[in-house]
Design a protein that fits this description.
Elements (H helix, E strand, L loop, with lengths): L1 H42 L3 H10 L1 H26 L2 H7 L4 H40 L21 E8 L5 E11 L2 E15 L2 E15 L2 E13 L18 H16 L17 H12 L5 H8 L12 H21 L12 H4 L1 H23 L1
Antiparallel strand pairs: 1-2, 2-3, 3-4, 4-5
Length: about 375
């Protein structure tokens, strides 16, 4: 009978948890997808790229909302069990409160491991693939975001200006600047131009203009009656660099170890680039590793905070206030886990005290519950 009761409790909690997690993630994903659509249109990306990019961001959303949804779901189900007198069935069958606590605590540890797998491996991989879609895709409808009488610099290293369009849709009085660096750039003026597709490649055809090349303080120029400007493989300013959260955990760990070794040897690392990671970015690397491997360990503390609910019966006159206090206590754990990121430093030894907080918190809450149960038995 014990197994049946425990199984029912876990299934009820899991069903509500999974439904809530999926629903909350979908709602947030829809709002983000709308923002992604604006970015894709502004960048001139294909809708297939938009769809892939949006779906690959879904694991990140799930990972972000999971702790709060977990707390809310289990808090709701445990409260419901007490209010519907279902917990009394457990006590009538001789099941101790500490058995229920240990059972759900073990489950929360299992969920912690799943959250680590999600945050440390699945999310970075999905984020990297999402970014690679943007890096490898071409700008397919540049014409749509070239605004008249505005300097359009969405494309990396390229600025386009046009005074307007004629009745045939041709761009008029075009200014185009292509810049490699401060000493090497190209400026093109043209009276007219239009976008055309040639072999699935978008080309800006310019008419009656002049191109001026600036290369290492040397200037050359040539006039043309017609010139093609190839738009293939152009990248936008928003999609060309890899963010720390998109780097795999193994690379971040190797990056930290390498930078740490360089620091130990007192070698200047200011100008050293190590696989998507700069010495100046060391603090961000440690913060990202902390988010992936340490913050999930707050989940058992959240579970124990919820399990304070079974220490008091609904018959207690202060039960409602008690539930509110437990809910606020759980929220404070979630908030403190996120705020702890602010105290992360570049030296990992200085962070040990922050790393062990979730473990210490879990032990202290468990001991508080355990001794509360002991004192309650003595009073009986």
């Amino acid at each position: 009978m014990e197994k049946i009761l425990f199984r029912k409790l876990l299934i009820d909690c899991l069903i509500f948890f999974l439904i809530t997690l999926f629903s909350a993630s979908i709602i947030i994903w829809v709002f983000q997808a709308v923002n992604f659509l604006d970015i894709m249109i502004e960048d001139g990306r294909d809708y297939l790229v938009y769809v892939n990019y949006s779906f690959l961001n879904f694991p990140k959303i799930v990972s972000k909302v999971l702790p709060f949804v977990f707390f809310f779901s289990f808090f709701y189900v445990i409260s419901k069990y007490e209010l519907n007198n279902e917990l009394i069935i457990f006590w009538n069958f001789g099941i101790n409160k500490i058995q229920v606590i240990n059972f759900l605590l073990i489950f929360s540890i299992f969920l912690t491991l799943l959250q680590i797998i999600l945050a440390a491996f699945i999310v970075p991989s999905a984020q990297d693939k999402a970014r690679s879609f943007l890096r490898t895709s071409s700008v397919n409808f540049l014409e749509s975001f070239v605004k008249q009488k505005k300097f359009n610099d969405t494309i990396k290293n390229i600025t386009i200006y046009t005074e307007g369009k004629d009745k045939d849709g041709n761009l008029l009085n075009i200014y185009l600047k292509k810049e490699e660096n401060i000493d090497n750039f190209q400026i093109t003026y043209a009276k007219k131009g239009k976008f055309v597709d040639k072999k699935n490649t978008q080309i800006l055809v310019l008419y009656e203009g002049e191109t001026i090349n600036f290369v290492n303080n040397k200037i050359t120029n040539f006039r043309f009656s017609k010139s093609d400007f190839n738009l293939k493989n152009l990248q936008t300013n928003t999609t060309t660099y890899i963010k720390t959260q998109e780097v795999s955990s193994s690379k971040l760990i190797r990056c930290y170890l390498k930078l740490n070794d360089l620091n130990i040897l007192n070698i200047d690392t200011k100008n050293v680039v190590i696989e998507n990671c700069l010495p100046a970015n060391l603090n961000n690397v440690i913060k990202e590793l902390y988010k992936r491997f340490i913050i999930p360990f707050y989940i058992p503390s959240l579970m124990l905070a919820i399990l304070f609910l079974i220490l008091k019966s609904k018959e207690n006159v202060n039960y409602l206030n008690y539930r509110i206090f437990i809910f606020l206590f759980g929220l404070s754990i979630i908030i403190s886990s996120e705020m702890s990121l602010r105290f992360i430093e570049s030296d990992i030894l200085d962070n040990i005290k922050i790393f062990i907080i979730p473990i210490i918190m879990m032990i202290l809450i468990y001991l508080t519950i355990y001794f509360n149960l002991k004192s309650f038995k003595r009073k009986k």
